[in-house]
Input
Amino acid sequence: MAGSNQCREHANAPSASAGSEAPLRICLFTYRGNPTCGGQGVYTKRLSRALADLGHKVDVVSGPPYPVLDSDITLHKLPSLDLYNPDDLFRVPSLKELTSPVNLIEWLGVSSGGFPEPFTSGIRVWNFMRKNARNYDVFHDNQCLAYGLLGIQAIGVPTVATIHHPITVDRDVEVSSEKIWWRKLKVRRWYSFINMQKRVSRRLSHIITVSEASKDDISRQFAIPPYKFRVVANGINTDIFHPVEGIKREENQIMVTNSADTPLKGLRYLIEAVASIRRYRDVKLTVIGKPKKDGVIDRLVNSLGAHDYITFTGRIPDEDFASYYARTTIAVVPSLYEGFGLPAGEAMACRVPVISTTGGALPEVVGDAGVLVKPGDARALEKAIVDLLDNPEKRDVLARAGYERVKRHFTWSNTAQDVVNVYREAIGAHS
Output
């Protein structure tokens, strides 16, 4: 994929050695950086900010939707057909657009029910790096894991990738949630990019993941030796998530931040638990999110007649999160699996008592500062919720413990420093 000229160019460029403390020139890549949906945009924004605060030069390269970055972080946009744009979903490209081979691949992939963005984004970023390799000491991929990364490695750029959790988990849960065989096939077609990600990740020397649980699961499901992984926990943005004084906490109020119709997030079990509690207690649930019309969650709420005690807020501004948490009695994280578990950490940072499942890495985030129940068990959630509602002193103890735990273990400055250590390892291995 690469020519020798680019190799020589990068080799002759000034760079920071592995043992040096000199500032690094970092190319941070995310194939999509939506700042309000999913975690890729959040990870990119917060990590780039924290790396820059340590004195490093950070450029972000992204396809649409583009991340929202601080003004001193350079964003290089890689335009695509953007066929998943909700304002023009699955639009028909012009013939001129399809004269580009990469665009044609993208359109054909989407038209056949696949998700080609990782593959095509990999080609686009490889083309970018062939022209700009001399400007960077290290390339950091945020879970694209496309063949293009191997091309970047081949031209002599130390390459690191973050894998937040094994996407095979998402696929398997979604397949099992579908009852009709052809819908199962559609899900498998959508997730067909996983095979590429497995092949590419096996050929990378340094992989960052966000928890021991993710490391173990990725290692097993992707067949990657454990020694290639470095565990670096995510930080929690305490500028957004923090205690708010002067707001009265409401009684019997439960809150969850959730991608409502994603089966992996386990919202249905929390709704079932709340519906059961409502038979004997005036409890209310606020969901920071919005269900698809006539989707699984929408139909469940309708069948339970739960509209009078379940509120879906839709998307809210970042600055409103802390106020919502300040009003709630308990925050619940009902996920079947989390590679890290930002919602748990965010609630803890707001000094709210947390009930969480043991899915994936959630016990690593919550520790002994919350109540843990097994995933996919509405009855267990019900019991835990009622117990906390009946024990205000226990709620206070957990709220304080969670707040202190975040301050000790989950800061973006610590995350950035640990990531830099991985960068220097990768640079040393390529020198």
About this structure: The CA atoms of residues 138 and 158 lie 5 Å apart. Residues 1-14 have pLDDT under 50 and may be disordered.
